[in-house]
Structures are given as C-alpha cells and as structure tokens.
Amino acid sequence: MLAGGKTTDQHPGRRRPKWLNLPTLGLIIAVGGVVAVPVVMQVKQVLIAEATWPGTVGASIYRQGHDYSKRVAAIERQDALGWTANVRIISPPRTSRLTTFDVELRDRAGRPIAATEATATLAHPLQESLDRGPLRAEILNLGQYRIQIQLPRGGKWRLQFAAVAADGTPFRRDFDIQVPDQVPNPVPDR
Questions:
Q1: Distance of alpha carbon 183 from alpha carbon 64, whole angstroms
Q2: Does residue 92 belong to any structural domain of this protein?
Q3: Which of 17, 42, 97, 99 sits at 20 to 30 Å (Cα–Cα) from 3?
C-alpha cells in the first residue's frame, strides 16, 4: 500500500474471492495428487504392456478358427489311440543354461512307440520373443526322445512335442513344465 491509501495492485477495485485461501488451495492440491497417482500408474502399465506385447495374438486368427474343427477331430483320433507321453527335465549344471528334456512315448499296452521323426517347440507363457523351435528331437531308443536347448531363463514353459509314428500316425502333446531357475554359484563364507 502506498501513501494516500493507494495500492500497488493493477486492479484496485478487484478483491480475491473468499474461498481462495491457503487451506482451500491445499485441499485442491491434495485431491489433485490423489487422483494423479493412479492415472500415472495406469499410463505406466499401458506403456509397459505395449512394449512387451508383440502385436499379434496368432499368426492367422481366421485360419486358427477355421481349422478348429479339424484340430478337435485330430485330438479325438489321438485320444482313441490311447498313447501316452511323459517328459523328464534334466536340470543343467549351475554354469550352463543347457536344459535337457527326455520324452517317452508309449501305446495303450505300455509298449514304446517308434517314431520316424519327432520335434518340439518351447513356448514362454508371457513373452513370445523367448519362444524356441521347432527343434528336432534326438531319437535315443525305441520310444525315447531327447531335446536339448539353451534356455534364456527358467520358470514356467510349455513344451509342445510332436511325433510321427512309423506307420504315419501323428501324435502331439503339450506339457506345462517348470524349468528350474539357475542360481549363481554361492560365495563361500569367510
């Protein structure tokens, strides 16, 4: 305020509204902060999801849907055969990521099934960029097949095993497997 009752305000007749005081401004800022935090977190989650999603759900969704009835018929034919498959995971040594999968294929009577070819694909449930395959399976003995692969990480994977028997009968089995995580060699206590 200057001498003679004059103010330095550019608008001398104008006064600040009564509601615009320090507690009200504090409340507005607090509410804005509470609302902003979830919005920022949602934006962050969307950006992460878009960065890790490859952009395709399947190579050809239309074809997959169109071939669905053929796939169901193939599964029913395979179930009628009564064949079984078991997988055994041989953990890699601590210094290597080479993981071995031994698959055993047997008929309804428990006899081993001779396959002329066998392949496998390893699919990671969360990151398609980690998927590996198709890999040729090594035939160890009658009904025994081995797949060896260097996996980038342990955890949950899906092993898709496919074989063709000597008589031309196809076989496919998916295994949900848990590959052990590798831990570095422990540092000895001193």
A1: 39
A2: yes
A3: 17
Its domain, for residue 167, covers 66-179
- 116 touches 166 (CB < 8 A): yes
Q: Which of 77, 166, 175 is nearest to 117 (CA)?
A: 166
Tokens 């095993």: give the residue.
161
Q: What is the pTM of this model?
A: 0.59
The CATH number of residue 158's host domain is: 2.60.40.1940
Residue 1 lies in a domain: no
- Is-contact 176 160, C-beta < 8 A? no
DSSP secondary structure letter of residue 48: H
pLDDT tens-digit profile of 27-36? 888 888 888 8
Buried (b) or exposed (e) across 118-138, using 16+ Cβ within 10 A?
bbbbbebeeeeeeebeebebe
- Among 148, 178, 145, which residue's Cα sits nearest to residue 162? 145
CA-wise closest residue to 117 among 94, 135, 136? 136
Torsion of CA 146, 152, 153, 154, to 10 degrees: 0
Cα–Cα distance, 149 to 179 (Å, whole number): 12
Closest CA to 89 of 171, 173, 153, 175: 175
Dmax (CA) for the chain in angstroms is 112
